[in-house]
Design goal:
two-stranded antiparallel sheet, 2 strands, 66% helix, repeat, transmembrane, MCP_dom_sf, transmembrane helix, SLC25A32-like
Length: 177
């Protein structure tokens, strides 16, 4: 699904009409016919590395909650404190782990140029080649392209999700008789 999503997002009017995806099913069929089943697994390794995001975010969140609780002398955390703790943990986790997003997206891109025989070739062919290519052509900052937009999208979402979870858990904890 990630490959289809990424490729659908990358389609522009520069793509010839007959190659554009009409819908999700059409995208699956065209990708399979052109590149085979392996195309749907492009970017799998960076996606799996995305697990580290959770490994960073939730311990940070619990740590921030603990610090805030100590500061409040054991009083229950306010909704704004929960939002701040969850938003801060999400932001730091995203900043640390964002390169996996760039690597996954680059690996999932459509082949970008043709060789002498007219066969479509990939600019990014493997995990390590993608890392080295980004480093060589863009430097470290290449691993963080689009991170600002990602933070604007994900930090508030995470804050509200965790706040909702905390409110529901508090409700059930106090009304479980």
């Amino acid at each position: 699904m990630w490959v289809v999503r990424t490729r659908s997002m990358l389609q522009t009017s520069a793509v010839p009409k007959h190659e554009q995806y009409r819908n999700t099913l059409d995208a699956f069929v065209k990708i399979y016919r052109r590149e085979g089943m392996a195309a749907f697994y492009r970017g799998l390794l960076p996606s799996l590395l995305g697990v580290f995001h959770v490994i960073v975010q939730f311990p940070l969140y619990e740590h921030f909650k603990s610090l805030t609780s100590e500061f409040r002398r054991g009083d229950p955390l306010s909704p704004s404190s929960i939002l701040l703790c969850s938003g801060g943990s999400k932001m730091l986790a995203s900043m640390v782990t964002y390169p996996h997003e760039v690597l996954r997206t680059r690996l999932q891109m459509v082949p970008t140029f043709s060789d002498q025989s007219g066969v479509a070739q990939r600019q990014y062919t493997s995990f390590m080649q993608t890392i080295l290519s980004i480093l060589r052509h863009e430097g470290i900052s290449g691993f963080y392209r689009g991170m600002g937009v990602n933070l604007v999208r994900t930090v508030p979402n995470s804050g509200l999700t965790i706040l909702t979870y905390e409110v529901i858990m508090h409700y059930f904890a106090t009304h479980s008789n």
